[in-house]
Amino acid sequence: MPDRGGGPTGPRIRAGRPSRKVRALLVTLGVLAALGMVFTMFAGFWTDWLWYRSVHYSSVFTTTLSTKIGLFFVFGLLMAVAVGLNIWLAHRLRPPLSAMSMEQQSLDRYRMGIAPYKKWLLLVVTCLVGLIAGASAAGQWRTWLMWVNGVPFHQKDPQFHLDVAFYAFDLPWYRFLLGFGFAATILCLIAAALTHYLYGGLRVTSPGARATAAATGHLSVLLGIFVALKAVAYWLDRYGLAVKSSDFKATDNWTGLRYVDANAYLPAKTILFCIAVICALLFFATLWRRTWQLPVIGFGLMVLSAILIGGLYPAIVQKFQVQPNEQAKEAPYVQKNLNATREAYGIDDTKVTDYEGESKTKDKSTLRGAADDAASFRIIDPNIVSPTFQQRQEMKDYYGFPDNLDVDRYPGKDGKEQDTVIGLRELDLAGVPKHNWINDHFRYTHGFGVVAAKGTEAKGGEPVFTEYDLPSKGDLGTYEQRIYYGEKTTTYSIVGGPQEEIDYSDNDGEKPTSYRGGSGVNLDNPVNRAAYALTFNEPQILYSGAIGKGSRILYNRTPKERVEAVAPWLTIDGDAYPAVVGGRIQWIVDAYTTTNGYPYASRTTLGDTTADSLTATNNSRAVVAQQNQVNYIRNSVKATVDAYTGEVKLYQWDTQDPVLKTWMKAFPDTVQPRSAISGDLMDHLRYPQDLFKVQRELLTRYHVTDAETYLTGSEVWQVPNDPTNKSGNAVPPYYLSMKMPDQKQQAFSLSTTFTPTGRDNLAAFMTVDAEADSKDYGKIRILKLPTRTTVDGPKQVQSKFNSDERIASTIKLLRGDDSDIEYGNLLTVPLDGGLLYVEPVYVRGSGLKLPLLRKVLVTYGNQTEFENTLDEALDKIFGTKKSATRPPGTGTPPDTSDPTVRQALQDAQKAFDAGQRALQDGPDWAAYAKAQEQLREALKKAEEAQSKADDKTADDKTGGKTDDKAGDKAGGETGEKDGGKNQS
Question: How many CB atoms within 10 Å of residue 632?
Answer without folding.
Answer: 26
